[in-house]
């Protein structure tokens, strides 16, 4: 039997996009996945991406996330925002 999943769209910006090698992607995650689970899965792909993700902040459907234990759901868009310079 196939485990239920949620489809999450991830949008990368600036250094995060450079490290990921894409601007946008959609991933299928386990139904009980959290934002921390997503970041861990992405970090496991590449050392440079993992380094960048440690400094990033995240938006879920345009709302800043303070709790990395926040469950992800379908459909949801996660924005990955590295620190930006300037004002």
UniProtKB/TrEMBL annotation:
Which InterPro entries does the record associate with it?
ThiS/MoaD-like
The organism's superkingdom is given as Bacteria
Mind telling me what this protein is named?
MoaD/ThiS family protein
| Source organism per UniProt | [Mycobacterium] fortunisiensis
């Amino acid at each position: 039997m196939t485990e239920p999943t949620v489809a999450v769209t991830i949008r990368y910006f600036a250094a995060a996009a450079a490290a990921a090698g894409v601007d946008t992607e959609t991933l299928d995650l386990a139904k009980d996945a959290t934002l921390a689970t997503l970041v861990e899965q992405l970090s496991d792909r590449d050392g440079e991406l993992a380094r960048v993700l440690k400094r990033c902040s995240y938006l879920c459907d345009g709302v800043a996330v303070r709790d990395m234990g926040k469950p992800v759901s379908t459909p949801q868009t996660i924005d990955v925002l590295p620190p930006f310079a300037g004002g």
